[in-house]
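Why does residue order matter? Because the sequence determines the fold. Keep that principle in mind as you read this record.
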Amino acid sequence: MTLPAKPITELYRLTDLFTDYNKLTRVERYTLIPIKANMVTLIHGGQFSLIRSSDRLLIEKQTAPALYGLSGNTRSLSYIRIYADTQCYYQLVPLDIFMQRLVENNLLQLTSAVLSWHIESLLYRDEMMMGRNSYQMIKGNILHLNQLDEFMRAKINVADFIVKRTNLSRSIVMKVLSIMRAKNHIDVKRGKLLAVYNLPDKLN
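Structure:
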């Protein structure tokens, strides 16, 4: 499975369009970044986690630039929370003002790339997680982690990442990782994933 390509160019153009709208808000690590109905949350800097509200399952880790709230749907926004993993900078822009400025600058078409990426990312996650056994979920998340950029990966503990993404027990995750390391399928040092070599379909 290939991680859907983030529309970096489109996101930078959209977030840069509002740098003069109001002052950016700075938040520290572990702080909640607000998402509100009829507001667009623009994240200009930092690394953050998308968490499912109901059970704190980790949906994804992301880096700026990013934006959320294009639908303006209160119900859909209630499903997730955004927590800063590092110092982050964000701003809230009313949805009507956001859309008006896009129309004025002939940039409305950029939103389709962002929305498509969000949908592809959810489908990618479903393909990795739905109907899979424990090993398949662990394998999928290792491959996923290996596709993240090196800077982000260096900050992520592989066992914590898998446990939070899957809700599998830590003992199961640690056992599988130990076997994979012993068989030279992966290289992990100090909890960080350094390399992935060959992951079998089944772990014997």
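The chain has two domains: 8-129, 134-196.
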